[in-house]
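re: ur question from earlier - yeah i can do the single chain one, its not a big deal. heres the input i used so u can compare w yours
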Amino acid sequence: MYDNRGYMFSKTCEYAIRATIFIAQKSRQGERAGIKDIAKGIEAPEHFIAKVLQELSRKSLVLSAKGPNGGFYHNQESAQSTLADIVRTIDGDKIFNGCGLGLKQCSNRTPALSIMSLRR
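and the output i got, formated as tokens:
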């Protein structure tokens, strides 16, 4: 369930979440965010974040406009996206179908919290 760094989300998913929050902040200010600004603002490689944003845009989790006043932004509808929407788009459903704590024994019949209480 966890990646090799011990985190629940992949690095790609982490960048997607951070980029979406960055874009939301800019959108609240009435601005659109360009790739360079986003990459700098979230400390991500520009070419990599461009691919991530392309996928988020395909799923309408962020919107984009081309041209001199273009960039990424949110409208009322895309601003309703949830963290789960971003995670599903980037990492798939695996995090929602297993143990959130990464335990191998966790299931609907034996949730992690009850397993942990048995180990005391």
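Strands lie at 63-65, 71-73. not sure if urs matches, ping me
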